[in-house]
């Protein structure tokens, strides 16, 4: 461990890090591994954007299918408007 200006040993939170860190800035990361699922915060990031994309895709994919849905379910135009589709 390197020593700090006051003469005391520097205290590190972890012995090793998964990413490159800058020891002069309190071991802050110098890179972001966006395609990694190893860390919990990156898993949460990827699951959130995939969930948002899925919801967005499903929500807007229903409009072109309305004629088929209307015929299959046998619903009226008023029922489609009140269903918030």
Characterise the protein shown here.
The chain is mainly alpha-helical. It is 42% helix and 5% strand. It contains three helices and two strands; from the N terminus they run ββααα. A two-stranded antiparallel sheet has the order 1-2. The longest helix has 22 residues. It is rod-shaped, with a radius of gyration of 26 Å.
Oligomer: single chain
Spatial separation of the terminal alpha carbons: 62 Å
Uncertain stretches of 5 or more adjacent residues: none
**Residues in helices, as a percent range:** 40-55%
Number of strands: 2
Query: Average pLDDT, to the nearest integer?
Result: 81
SSE string: EEHHH
Counting DSSP H or I runs of 4 or more residues, the number of helices is 3
Q: Which outline best applies?
A: rod-shaped
> What share of residues are in beta strands?
under 5%
- Give me the secondary-structure category: mainly alpha
Q: How would a textbook summarize the main sheet?
A: 2 strands, antiparallel
List the helices and strands and how they pair.
Elements: E1 21-22, E2 28-29, H1 40-61, H2 66-73, H3 77-82
Antiparallel strand pairs: 1-2
Briefly summarize what is shown.
The chain is mainly α and 85 residues long.
Descriptive key words:
single chain, 85 residues, mainly alpha, 3 helices, 42% helix, 5% strand, rod-shaped
